[in-house]
Give the backbone structure.
Amino acid sequence: QVQLVESGGGLVQAGGSLRLSCAASGRTFSSYAMGWFRQAPGKDREFVAAINWSGVSTNYADSVKGRFTISRDNAKNTVSLQMNSLKPEDTAVYYCAASSGSYSYKINRYDYWGQGTQVTVSS
């Protein structure tokens, strides 16, 4: 069992930056691939970024590539999402998720989810 708690969301102007963090409970954190997803009002939840268990391999949605960076610290049981050059279309609730499989972009590959943190980008 893994429990995930996101933090770091907030209101930022377009062009600004935010850093999201996800704290995980449990002693097996390093065995999970981790992902970030987001859901805007009236839209489906979508993939943002994922990282494998060791942190060596990452995957990004085209819409955030070059602007967002996912990283993890297995010693601290945390995964982070550094978001730069934010745009109004990045406004959404951001969710952290853990997968016992690979670092997939597919929502149904993830076993555990956090409650989400709101990110709002004003124009």
User: Anything to note?
Assistant: The chain has no helices and eleven strands. The radius of gyration is 13 Å.
